[in-house]
Structure formats: structure tokens, C-alpha cells
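Example record

The entry below shows one chain as it appears in the dataset: sequence first, then C-alpha cells.
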Amino acid sequence: MRDTHHRTVRTANEAIADEAQARESYMRKIASATAIDANHLGPVLAAAGYAAPWRKVLTAVRTRPLADAVAAVRDHALRTLLERSETQSTSALTNEQARTEREALRRFLDHTAGTVDRLQQETGEDCTRDACPACTTA
């Protein structure tokens, strides 16, 4: 059974769906007469930051195995965290966006720790995308 494979694809799809839901919620707040403050934008930034690496995984999996896609995105996330320092913009919003992106990359790395090894162990069990309920939405 390709449990890690399916769980990984399902997690990616859920992260992207959560981002869409956060954006929709924010748009409803903007469209209403309710006062808007920076706290309303925070959940959108967090959801978008966390969905970004998962979106890259789903894009990469079109041309390579899922284990390789996750490994490549993990490598990119780690390089990004190591190469970029704290943002020191005069804009508090820019600084907050950069902070949430870094936190999202850390969360992605934490969430996928060991995933590549488990996916590689499952490689002998091929998943036909058309018959796989977790992969049909990827």
C-alpha cells in the first residue's frame, strides 16, 4: 500500500485548499462593511506560505517521481532558509510576509522529515494516477 504517497499528495491538496479558503474568507471581509486590520491578513499569509512548497511538489511530480519532487522542494526550502536573512524593510507588512514564508518553509521541512525515505521504500508499488483517488487531484 502506498500510504506515504497518498498521505503526501493529500496533504499537498489540503494545504492548497486551505489557502483558497483563507483567501475567500479575507475577500468576504474586504467586501463587507466590517473594519479590516492586519490581523485579517495574517491567516492568508500563513496559508499561502505553507501552500507554496506543496504547490511546487505537485508541479514537480508531473515530470518526476513524488520522492524526487519532495526531495527537490525540501532542498530548495533549506537553501532558501540558509541563504536569506531576516527582512529589514521599512514596511512592517513586507517583514511579516517574509517571516511567515520562512515559518512556512520550516513547517514544510518539519512535516516532510523522513517522507522522502518512506516514499523511496514505496517505489516498488506503482500507483496508477487514474486509479488512485489521492492522485487524481494532483
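Notes for this example: The chain is about 70% helix and 0% strand. Helices lie at 3-31, 38-60, 66-83, 92-111, 115-121.
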